Give the backbone structure.
Amino acid sequence: MAVDLIRYDLLVQDALRGMVRHVLSSVARDGLPGEHHFYISFQTHARGVRLSQRMRDRYPDEMTIVLQHQFWDLRVTELAFEVGLSFQNISEMLLIPFDAITRFADPAAGFELQFAAAEETAEIGGSLSERPPPEGKPAAPAPPDQLPLPPDERTQTHPKAADPAAPEELAPAQSAPKVVSIDSFRKKS
């Protein structure tokens, strides 16, 4: 069997993460349209994730957040997004690199994406943004819009109506979402 030196699996995963980035950028700019809302699961121990020690202790491996009624200061860069959420009436700011996301779902559209975990990606060659430059070419510094957000650079987005009963972590969507897994693009041996 031929060896995939192009790494199509990583290219597809990066493209799908780009779609998530585009959707979140639109929401940061215009607010959530209609009934759309998102479940976003991510690895809390992944490189670049920023959340309080209280939340890290409560969710040492993975956490699911919901962007629906009660979120603020959504800011999206090339590598990460930052959002304010309330957990048991305590406000928190989270910084989540797109590489840390393991699941993105929009139950209103019946849409779901699942991603390889960050350590799985590292085992198979790392994400495209983490790969070293080709031999003989110097690594270019990341443009400012691709750097993780500093804690004091927050912008106000469209705050949603407060919903104190909103759960901090929700079960999977009740409708049967369409799941697109990176494994579906891999060649079966």
Q: What stands out?
A: Residues 120 and 126 are 8 Å apart (CA to CA). The first helix runs from residue 8 to 30. The chain has one domain: 8-185. Strands lie at 38-43, 62-67, 71-76, 80-87, 90-97, 101-106, 111-114, 178-181.
